Amino acid sequence: MIRFENVGIRFEDDSKPVLSAVDLKVDEGELVLVVGATGSGKTTLLRCVNGLVPHFSGGTLSGRVTVDGRDTRTHRPRDLADIVGVVGQDPAAAFVTDTVEEELAYGMESLGVHADVMRRRVEETLDLLGLADLRGRTLRTLSGGQQQRVAIGGVLAAHPRVLVLDEPTSALDPVAAEEVLAALTRLVHDLGLTVLLAEHRLERVVQYADRVVIVENGRVSADLPALAMAMSPVSPPIVDLGRLAGWSPLPLSVRDARRVAGPMRQALAGRTPARVIRSKALTAASESLLSARALVVNRGRRTVLRGIDLQVHAGEVVALMGRNGSGKSTLLATACGQLPARGGALRTDGLDPASLKPRELLKHVGLVPQDPGMLLYAETVEAECRTADTDVHAATGTTRTLLCHLAPDVQDSTHPRDLSEGQRLALALAIVLAGEPPLVLLDEPTRGLDYGAKTRLVASLRSLAAQGHGILVATHDVELVAELADRVMVIADGEVVTDGPAAEVLAGSPAFAPQVAKVMHPQPWLTVADVTAALEAS
Amino acid sequence: MTRALHDPRLPRLLHPAAWWAWAIGLAMAASRTTNPLLLALVMAVAAYVVSARRELGAASPFGAFLRLGLFVIAMRVLFEALLGGGVPGQTVLLNLPQIPLPTGWGVRLGGPVTLEGVLAAAYDGARLAAVLTCIGAANALASPRRLLRYVPATLYEVGTALVVGLTYAPQLVDDARRVRAARRLRGHSGHGPREMARLAVPVLDSALERSLDLAASMESRGYGRSVHRDARSRRKATALTLLGLGGVVAGVYGLLDGGSAPLLGLPLLLAGSVAAAASLAVGARRERRSRYRPDPWAGPEWVVSASGAIAGALVLVAAQRGTAGIILQTSPALWPTLPWIPALGVLVGLAPAWLSPPPPLRAIERAGGQPKGHRWDIHPEDITSQESSGHSLGSSS
Fold first, then answer.
1. Structural domain count of chain A
2. Whose CB among A106, A395, A460, B80 lies 3.0–4.6 Å from B121's, allowing a Cys bridge?
3. Do the Cβ atoms of A29 and A194 come closer than 8 Å?
4. Same domain, A294 and A168
5. Is residue A249 in some structural domain?
6. Mutate to test the interface with A, among B175, B389, B392 (most CBs of A within 10 A)
7. What is residue B373's predicted lDDT score, i.e. its pLDDT?
């Protein structure tokens, strides 16, 4: 169905090629997962399939890409629209129309599908992706997960035979991600759709893949999932656990792992992870940096938070979870004074954040927004660090030192936009930390981060907590929460559902359980690191 | 076309062109009179129909247009009072201190404010305000975006550009708000000219990036596949459409502007319509795009557009014949009276409030049900205050 023959891509003549000597064949009805670190060329590979690279992006393509026999050198993306559907990283950016129904129909209108057929397919697609209730809604008012499903639906309705998806679940909560992936596998099995999918959160998708393509330094290799994972530079926790235990073949799903994990569970029976003991000691002792009592917050006329109680103590990392649209970002925005509280009380570092001047505010609380690029204005990293120093009247070089600590390999002269996702996040975090706020808030920090960047982020946040910062992270990423958090708070529809130690909350519900917890259930192990430490101690 | 569509009780959205035709008819009526009673009647009719037939959850610019209208009246009166107009008057309301200007200038600064002058200015302002109200009503009843779906195939590119523009403006506002919120996080207020200059870079940056994304998305979903097939037929159709639209515009202007030659309006409008229809036919022949759920044009559409046309026509004819009370005498000022035939004509414009189908969500709400899946859409303020949830700072996630 898709053939890459000795393909090379370079965007500037003198620079290093992004992809070189790619030979790849994807058969009809395959679900192929593309993995690789950020900046490895995954997106470029995907955009080659329908000719967006090079027709749209510029650059030089050598070799040949054919889809269903059509050569992308002679066929522009629009000429391939009837066989290839592409869903990009940011679904909102790709919306052409205004409402859900019109968006689903747009592709078909362009292809000239007959009106009756179009009407039927829109209805089918609404059902297939569970969008029937949203059919008349304005796209801008949908939550991230809903937008993602509409974006997939808009492409699917045109009945392409190949579907290309770039990180389809990175913005979704675990349950919504499950839904999208379930819909995809159903399409593969029922309709024989060919799917090419790039994803950082391997734990969500690797078990569905027929083959895995690894992109590393512009080289591409494809293999069966179990074999590919054995040598992949990035791997989900379950594979790490398998490597640790020396299981062969490597397990890819929780089911596979549980069946071989019996001896490991036996070896660890009756022991408690070190972190559980620590988090119990923590909450009682230290001062409260963020406290909310019966907090009510409105956005426009809509009440988003309805009576939230929350405490974040110094030295503690609290994870805030909940489905898309449940009020997580609103809570963070309120905690740093961007939205006023309508009822209840909120104290950030002992003060009311909404009454503080911005200049004062950043000495007490710092927020790293979902898109860290929003905090960045300057032309170079160096200038950005300099302005951050003057903003908070810190000694020159403060921010740069922090950045060196968080991400050692960032060059001074780089434009912030050219940084990798992880580096950009590190820069934003360094800027926020320059004001030495005791409380640090992060909104969905792991979107677009690979495992390496995530590990570095966890390490830096843990060390901040150890220095006495209080950290509140809103996230969908259960594996991150397992690695990072002392306490987890789950909110739904603006109300607190659970608030408790990470181990209890995460192990307690299947939707929020990390892979290791599912494998080790009913023992309270959350991460590979916990298991490793315990095994070494024994 | 099924018979059910002719039934005005079947809830559905009316064809946008019908609403615009209705509004243009009313606007035509308003533009030909200075009688404040008649103008107030036009505004009341427009407001009532909007309140009865506006779809719930649709953005409503009606209030904004109404405020703009009041502002126009106020400005007109203010300028009249300060600068004086061409209307001579005896009844002096108050004397402002006058600043002497050379006599040849034709304006004065300050001086006596006469009742006649103020009234003339207010009536003139009210006429513009009433036209604005009609346009606002059309906007509220059928968004211009829905109307743009019916842009002929020949002007497809223009239509798309307009749609993209319409999507972009609110997104730019969203972006600006987000960037400003982020600016606060870095310890700046985000106010003042220097701050604005700093904000411009990231806002324009993200707008540019987004438009590239949008273009890529349109391209990969097959935009422009079916057009650009035959350059000659395209040129022919484009020429016809432009000619036709030009004719329609000139014709409408001729009808609205009482001062132009009476024969200029109608013939030009007709000729323009014929040319536009011809271009539509040519365009339709080469159009390979299909259209999702095109709005039907059935009985209620005829009724609505006809009611507007009748309102416009009656006032127009009355004005043409010089019926008393259409153009109000201001010097000396007289108490306005309501000429009854034009007034009845304007009242015909009220018919859509009962004779057009109710919009679906409104019908559900009237039946006492919860409009499913639209709960959050009801207040447009909500929509604007809620930032797009893709990657916003304070999204509702």
1. 3
2. B80
3. yes
4. no
5. no
6. B389
7. 42
Most confident of A180-189, A253-262, A282-291: A253-262
The beta-carbon neighbor of A94 closest among B213, B379, B394 is B213
In angstroms, the CA A532 to CA B349 distance is: 79
Verify whether the Cβ–Cβ distance B383 to A140 is below 8 Å: yes
Give residue-wise pLDDT tens across range B197-214: 777 877 887 777 877 888
pLDDT higher than threshold 50 for residue B377:
no
A·B CB contacts under 8 A: 249
CB contact under 8 A, A78 and B225: yes
**Full 3-state SS string of A411-443:** CCCCCHHHCCHHHHHHHHHHHHHHCCCCEEEEE
The answer to whether A93 contacts B382, with C-beta atoms less than 8 Å apart, is no
Spell out where chain B has E strands: 92-99, 109-114
Strand arrangement, sheet containing A487-492? A365-368, A439-443, A470-474, A317-321, A487-492, A495-501
Residues B103-116 have pLDDT tens digits of: 666 667 777 778 88
Residue A225 lies in a domain: yes
Q: Are residues A516 and A392 in the same domain?
A: no
Tokens representing residue B332 in the block: 């000396």
Determine the average pLDDT of the residues in B296-324. Answer: 84
Among A98, A109, A112, the residue with its CB nearest the CB of B167 is: A98
CA dihedral B218, B219, B221, B226 (to 10 degrees): 110
A492 contacts in B (CB within 8 Å)?
none
A445 lies in the same domain as A405: no
Angstroms from A136 CA to nearest CA on chain B: 7
Task: Note the pLDDT of residue A119.
Answer: 92
Res. B371 pLDDT band, cuts 50 70 90 = very low
B163 touching A (Cβ < 8 Å): yes
* Judgement on whether residues A327 and A310 belong to the same structural domain of the protein: yes
Same domain, A169 and A35: yes
- pLDDT of A260: 93
Q: Is residue A361 part of a domain?
A: no
- Asked, as a colleague might, if the bond just before B332 is cis with ω within 30 of 0, I would say yes
- Backbone phi and psi for residue A367, each to the nearest 5 degrees, phi listed first: -120, 130
Say if the Cβ atoms of B186 and A144 lie within 8 Å.
Answer: no
Same domain (yes/no): A42, A27: yes
> Which of B202, B214, B225 shows the shortest C-beta gap to A111?
B225
Name the closest residue on chain B to residue A428, using Cα atoms. Answer: B186
Chain B's closest residue to A49, CA to CA, is: B220
* Token pair 């956005």 in the structure block, residue: A299
Give the pLDDT band (50/70/90) at residue B331.
Answer: low
Arithmetic mean of pLDDT, A48-66: 89
Q: What percent of chain A has pLDDT over 70?
A: 98
pLDDT of residue A337 exceeding 60, the answer is: yes
Please answer yes or no on whether B391 and A370 come within 8 Å at the CB atom.
yes
Q: Which chain A residue shows the shortest CA-CA distance from B178?
A: A374
Is the CB of B372 inside 8 Å of chain A's CB atoms?
Answer: yes
Q: Which of B149, B163, B204, B217 to mutate to test the interface with A (most CBs of A within 10 A)?
A: B217
Contact B220/A78, CB-based, under 8 Å? yes
pLDDT per residue as tens digits for the range A143-194:
777 888 899 899 989 989 999 999 888 777 888 788 888 888 888 888 889 9
> Of the candidates A55, A106, A304, which has its C-beta nearest B396's C-beta?
A304
Contact A119 B376 (CB under 8 A): no
Query: Within 10 A of A280 (CB to CB), how many other CB atoms are there?
Result: 11
Q: In sequence order, what DSSP letters do the residues of A190-232 get, joined into one string?
A: HH--EEEEE-S-HHHHGGG-SEEEEEETTEEEEE-HHHHHHH-
Domain boundary among A389, A411, A436: A436
Residues of A in contact with B220 (CB under 8 A): 50, 52, 77-78, 80-81, 84-86
Q: Between the CA of residue B160 and those of A55, A147, A298, B148, B155, what are the distances in Å?
A: 21, 22, 36, 8, 9
